[in-house]
Amino acid sequence: MSALRTSALHRRRPRLRAAALLLTALLVASCGDGSSPAPSQTKADGRGDGCVTDFSPDKDYFPVKSTVRHAKNFSVRYEKSYQVLTVAQPYPNAKPESYVLVKCGAPKPSLAGDLAKAQQITVPVHSLYSMSTTHLPLLTATDRLGVLTGVADTSLVTTPEVRARVKAGKVAEYAKGGTINTEKVIAAKPDVLLTQGSDDPHYPKLRAAGIPVVADAEWLEPTPLGRAEWVKATAALTGAEERADRVFHDVETAYTEAARQAAQARTPVGVLSGSMFQGTWTMAAGGSYVGTLIKDAGGTYPWAGDRGTGSLRLSFEAVYAKAGDARLWLTDQKWTSGADILKADSRYGRLAAVRDGEVWSNTKTTTPEGGNDFYERGLLRPDLILSDMAAILHPDLARNHTFTFYEKVPTK
């Protein structure tokens, strides 16, 4: 879920990691400044990040190629001097969009058919504007944070390295509250602007002004590993394919191990998710990202049979009838006491999880304005989310677990 999507959610409701469970070879993302060298500082033989200086149409300028295994909403196809990045659904119900990523120094290809009018972008990019905080860990983990020159709303950023760059004046804010300042973006002339997986009337204006706009719609992926694999889509833009492959491999390995450990639990645990706003309970569907995490953590979910990948809108009565006796409640609200829970809605007191003191919130690391690391670093690190969930559901299997995203809400 993007910063602006979560921002809107936080405005509608009250504020909506971790040693992995006996994990091995756990990823430790390389952060630092992560600056990418300018083209003049790189090798000029067409390898790695270097630009082409002596173009040959028969030479492969992308020796390192990404293979997409889990993500369903994007693909990458390689030609000799350019890649074709295709996003199947740039935003809900939208038609596919393709982007031609041309190796710097190579001539722009003359293309026909569906690619004739596709945006052509020189890669690797050296200036990137981000509409969503979910992009940030994809840059830090691949040592490309230096390309980040703009974020939509700085108040929603939780990544320390990014906050430091904002404070140092290296990263501009251009869409406070979700409204893009088109004049500011056009004046800055970033190499690319990544969307938050939704449509915006400002995007055609930016494209008309020569600013490439590329859809990042990871939130439409139904699986945790599918979302995390978008690190490879970002790497296609930044020239970090090799690093991205290593990063994702480590995440995939850690997630698989966490799920294997959770599967050893003998007793499934009933789980309730989501929360209410203005009388409507927003509940993750069984086929959604959260639904998959609950299943992989060894939980039983009353809505597991609903294979939708989005959210359900339910009444309290419908939720209570189906999950009022659920042992655990995984919520997204920044509550600090049982009184906070009952103040939000007195009916919550009827839930077994509230009575038994088993309410857990994914708001351990947040900003006062509503930024949440669960929706930021959590995109790339579903292994940490899964480890948190498994430790909540099966504490006997993770006695020394340190939580990354979840914290227990004291209800008594």
UniProtKB/TrEMBL annotation:
Gene3D superfamilies: Nitrogenase molybdenum iron protein domain
Signal peptide start-end: 1-31
Residue intervals of the Fe/B12 periplasmic-binding domain: 127-397
Presence of keyword Signal: yes
Entry keyword annotation includes Signal: yes
Keywords: Signal
Annotated InterPro entries: ABC_Transporter_SBP, ABC_transptr_periplasmic_BD
Family listed: Belongs to the bacterial solute-binding protein 8 family.
The protein's name in its UniProt record: ABC transporter substrate-binding protein
Originating organism: Streptomyces luteireticuli
